[in-house]
Amino acid sequence: MNTLLPTSTAGSLPKPSWLAQPEKLWSPWKLHGQELIDGKRDALRVALMEQQLAGIDIVSDGEQTRQHFVTTFIEHLGGVDFEKRETVRIRDRYDASVPTVVGPVTREKPVFVEDAAFLRRQTKAPIKWALPGPMTMIDTLYDAHYKSREKLAWEFATILNQEARELEAAGIDIIQFDEPAFNVFFDEVNDWGIAALERAIEGLSCDTAVHICYGYGIKANTDWKKTLGSEWRQYEAIFPRLRESGIGMISLECQNSRVPMDLIELVRGKKVMVGAIDVASEIIESPAEVAKTLRNALRFVDADKLFPCTNCGMAPLPRHVARGKLEALTAGAEIVRRELAA
Ligand SMILES: [Zn+2]
């Protein structure tokens, strides 16, 4: 990466209204069959162009081809019965009806590899691709087969590794694992969660990242945040082990969050994607606000390891708001770049 402070997003961007209901998470597709296949690819092109017009350095597919950041991946696997549903508590926070693991989980075919190759053909810019992390995957399922969270996570890590190797071969530069569950199950993260992630990145030579956030700006998450007190110290429990891990980059929620910035010192040496855009608010940050967050982070991250980013995905936001936030991120990063150069 030649640019200092290269910008990117945590992952999802709003979908066009002809593809899915806007401002709604996990909205069902509006198209079917070949129209849906074509529509997803058109949306991917639009998402790419919007990132590039806004000046984002490391681009993504905006998750235009998936409905849900975990479920869409699991839908492609064997051993999971989507008809057999159970209600479970997700991340200790809200109840959801989820599919059941009924036998050994297997990856019978590539999941996102064709989409990734398609994106690669559209641009020469560095590309980041997001996959769900093993711990977050098991937390979105009912397990009637392995009856062990650790065992199932390990199986998913093996499957994710197969997918990740093929994504790398398709030209992906950074593979990111989304692990919001890392902010909840600290003991498990340290016992086997980070080890499972390391299994998922085995043999990769591209950059690897883990995204650990406080979730989309939906009510269950904002209500949960209200219970976390004046300082959010969740990262503190897992950073020491994460620092020793083979994961290269860590994506964090820093804008309008109550995470004490000095916690980042605990992962000194890692590349840090600093969330400088709040995805739970429709208020577009000013470039000065973004710059302030980045400057604050620079006290604990070396400049060559700081990657300005969004707190989380922007799928539920109105499109014009998401576009405005991308532009603010670029402009804020540019302010700090100039200061560093001076
Ligand atoms: Zn997130």
TrEMBL record:
It holds the Pfam family Meth_synt_2. SUPFAM superfamilies: UROD/MetE-like. InterPro entries: Met_Synth_C/arc, Met_Synthase_cat, UROD/MetE-like_sf. It comes from the Bacteria. The keyword Ribonucleoprotein does not apply. One of its GO terms (biological process) is methylation. Gene3D superfamilies: 3.20.20.210. Residues 5-330 form the Cobalamin-independent methionine synthase MetE C-terminal/archaeal domain. Its cofactor is Zn(2+). GO terms for molecular function: 5-methyltetrahydropteroyltriglutamate-homocysteine S-methyltransferase activity; zinc ion binding. Keywords: Metal-binding, Methyltransferase, Transferase, Zinc. This is 5-methyltetrahydropteroyltriglutamate--homocysteine methyltransferase.
